[in-house]
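Ticket opened by: R.M.
Priority: normal
Category: complex prediction / small molecule

The reporter submitted a protein together with NAP and asked that the result be attached to this ticket for the collaborator who will pick it up next week. Submitted input follows.
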Amino acid sequence: MANLGTQSRPMRVAIVGSGPSGFYAAEAVANSGLDVEVNIIEKLPVPFGLVRYGVAPDHPKLKKVTMIFHQIAEKPNVNYFGNVKVGEDVSLQELESCHDAVVFCYGAETDRQLNVPGENLPGSHTATEFVAWYNGHPDYKNATFDLSCEDVVIIGQGNVAADVCRILSKSVDELSKTDIAEHAIEALSKSKVRRIHVVGRRGAAQAKFSSRELKELEALPNCLSRAYAEEIALTTADDVELADPTNYNSVACVDAFKRMSEASDSNTDKEIEFHFLLSPTAFHGNEKLEAISFARNRLAGDAFSQAAEATDSTQEIPCGLCFRSIGYRGKPIEDAPFDERRGLVPNEKGRVICDESNPNRNLYVSGWIKRGPSGIIGTNRADSIETVETLVADLERIERNSKAKADLTLGSLLQQKRVPYVDYEHWKRIDDAELSMGKTLGKSRNKFTSVTDMLIAANSGVSQVDYDYPGQSEAY
Ligand code: FAD
Ligand code: NAP
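Result attached by the on-call engineer:
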């Protein structure tokens, strides 16, 4: 019978990352019925991960989930340590020295590569960069995108591509009332973009858009959505896929593409063209992107596993800007197990599969870094519940393997190391300051785009943390 998790020996759990999976994991641990103390550790001063820096500014309702996260953070046994990067400000070993278990919830921050010549020419960017830039992420505030061209290509047909497409198509008047970064509004107000080509390597029935997102694009004022009948013709295997009653989303998408292929020309300022069965083979340009070559594909294989197979036919799309929106990818934290091929932390139901050289570690994982970069905010709740169920079932093993020192807390460790962390009260000050700046500007919120400004706002009023530490990152 484990003593861990009782009043005489509360279990201390570190959660690395404050996105949805981090908050849902914290909630599940806090509600486990055990005596626990949960520390959420976030590399930025501000919480909420991709809810703040991914979810599109013109979809404010989805951000209301932060009200739930707020309630989790206010639980008496949940603490927030912002501005602490695990692997840099504090090592994993150090975290293990003051927690019984560590749960990785640090998301998938980099991107998949196409591995096609010219992919990194100036003018060819990842959607990740653009999304983080328009959402005001401090690491991307100085990114630049040449919006002076008329043709933009987006490669990939998932919901991130749909977000990018909307931001490029919507009027600045509409966007400027949201929490979009001011630098993005300024750049978008000068945009000359007229045609957005959204290119998929497979067919209309395999596009990964949610039909709701697609219909939103179709309904944009002053923007015509087009598709071409010959590109959306269905295969026999497509028919099988679409006849599956669980595949209603694809049926709705295919219907939308059919409507687009029948739409008559109109005098809109902008056009979105959906192209199918095209894989990029080379990015061309002297000093910057001028065109992209594609191989025309056909679909091969059975229903639900149809793959794109190149034919001899090719196509070129002239463009001055490209966003590669082919999925995010996780990266390793020093000294933690990592599956390089899949870009995630290897695990069994959330229990990290540790190296044979060091097998007895109390490491767990949830969210995008557990299962890969897919799923909406809510998906992470069930995922974190699964992980915490595994963790609770492991209680005796955790007690046996724990490296936590009874007299070392995370707060005292960070103070010893002179890491200028912020707590949840500090975040509330940042939040207040952003909301009030937003009010002045007629926006829902105006985000700070530098860590220094966040820390100044956090430190306004009565402070619990002395920020005058040496070594504060100059990068921001
Ligand atoms: P994240 O949200 O990425 O959180 C990870 C956190 O860990 C971040 O705060 C990060 O700063 C922190 N971190 C990283 N490394 C470290 C470290 N070393 N130390 C400390 N902290 C660290 N879903 C919807 O339901 N609706 C939407 O409208 C929607 N829009 C989206 C738009 C985009 C562009 C993207 C990419 C995703 C969108 N999603 C949406 C999906 C949703 O955002 C994800 O399912 C969810 O955010 C994944 O949660 P996570 O906690 O695993 O990762
Ligand atoms: P995604 O849904 O997986 O879409 C990725 C797209 O890239 C697919 O069309 C995929 O095609 C294509 N692709 C992958 N590798 C490619 C390659 N080598 N060459 C050409 N194309 C390639 O990923 P995402 O758009 O990044 O979204 C991530 C998750 O966040 C999803 O679960 C999404 O639903 C969620 N999200 C939700 C919202 C929302 O709810 N509003 C908004 C944004 C994101 P194949 O199908 O052929 O692989």
